[in-house]
Amino acid sequence: MTSELTAAVPLAERVTQHHIGGMLLQTLPTPVRDVVAVRGSFRVHPDFGADEDLVQTLCVKMLDKGTLGRDQFAIADVLENRGAKVSFRTDGDRVAFNAKMLKADADIVLPLLAEQIHQPRFAEAEFEQVRAQVAAELQHAMQSTGALASAAFTKRLYAPAHPNYDPNPAAQLEHLAQIDLDEVRAFHAEHFGANELAVTAVGDLDEEVTVTLLAKGFGNWAPHTQPATFIADAQPQPPGRTDVPVADKMNLDVILGHAISLRRQDPDYLALYLANFMLGGNFSSRLMATIRDEQGLTYGIRSMLNGIGTEHDADWRVKVTLSQANLEHGIDAVHAEVARFLQEGVTAEELDTAKTTVTGTFQVSQATTGGLASLLHTNAERQFEVEYLDGFTDEVHATTLDDVHAAMARHWSLEKMQVALAGTLPK
């Protein structure tokens, strides 16, 4: 845990930024003994319209299956013997990595992290295992009403080349069978590079050692030359509804909402975030109080601003699970509650409660090395200054009822609502 004294000092005064080659490295020493957390990511620019993000998924899953210098079992021994962890994941058009280690092991774990990113083994046997794992995940998604409803919903809002488009899992499974290891190797060679490379290290740092190790691992890494190919704007169909029949799924997942032309840096973002939080962001929200608690139509309902980025449109959606018997009535009830929310707005008491909860969650996110590293890293990915985090709580508290209602009026509209659902349809 960080001390109260340290937490009282603005982050901008405690974080040091190092520009090394194509890397932005942030370091933040904290009073936590021995533990170091590292977060990082870089842009790879897959062609979403060609489903190249599936190749990206396979490539990233291969990063912990061995390097040119050691197999996956040797890597596991290095990490497990030191209680360290290294992981990789896809994040839209980025590849992200996390590492956690003891201070004394940084000189072993950080070079290993760089080795895994730069020199993956790409062995045929491991590739087939990874492909089988992804196939199993897609087969599960083909029976998941949530995944199928999401795919149908995004198809109503976006072109396939939009980062928020959610491909149909059956189509992805067919494509998966056609991808070979050479395609994955080529993706790594052509798309991995120091493009917007951001790394954050937090904890019991020896800053000079940490900077030296990460500079050696990533400072001379060249950027790739692949262009960004995504479509930034939503391209919604006329408002309507898509039903996806799924056998033996008597509870149906339903999504209602529409595309929004809102970016993370938009002045309306925070006001709309608070509005959504009050509508369906937690257990005390309007939707939970009415649709679940008062009307008993569902066990689960929430709303969200989905896929918000700094470069492309996103969407606002309400997700609810409904039984066959409650399906149409439940959809109508959600429409009615959203309409009431838009017409009547929120109260000062609701807004004050939301502000307290949101700022409290923000403070809690800084209580661990991992949480603080993630917060700083996400902020750097957005290319925001560290000062933004220092002013976040004040910005939340400065948001007025007029700000919230104006943002709702600008970005939400019942006339734009789309509906998608998946499950066993009532007869």
Briefly characterize the structure.
Helices cover 46% and strands 19% of the residues. Strand 1 and strand 2 (23-29) form a beta hairpin.
Spatial order of the strands forming the largest sheet: 1-2-6-3-5-4
Distance between the termini: 56 Å
**Helix content class:** 40-55%
| Helix-and-strand structural type | alpha+beta
Secondary-structure element pattern, one letter each: HHEEEHHEEHHHHHEHEEHHEEHHHHHE
| Principal-axes shape call | globular
Radius of gyration over C-alpha positions, nearest whole angstrom = 23 Å
> What is the number of E strands?
11
Biggest beta sheet attributes: 6 strands, mixed
Given as residue ranges, the uncertain stretches (5+ residues, pLDDT < 50) are: 1-5
Number of helices: 17
Mean pLDDT: 96
Beta-strand content: 15-25%
Task: Give an account of the 3D structure.
It is built from 17 helices and 11 strands. The protein has helices at 4-8, 11-14, 52-61, 72-80, 106-118, 124-141, 145-157, 169-176, 181-191, 207-218, 269-280, 286-294, 327-344, 348-364, 369-381, 387-398, 401-411; strands spanning 16-20, 23-29, 35-43, 85-91, 94-102, 197-203, 241-245, 251-260, 301-306, 314-323, 418-423. A hairpin with a 2-residue loop joins strand 1 (16-20) and strand 2 (23-29). Helix 5 (106-118) packs parallel to helix 10 and helix 11 (269-280) crosses helix 17. The protein is globular and about 60 Å long.
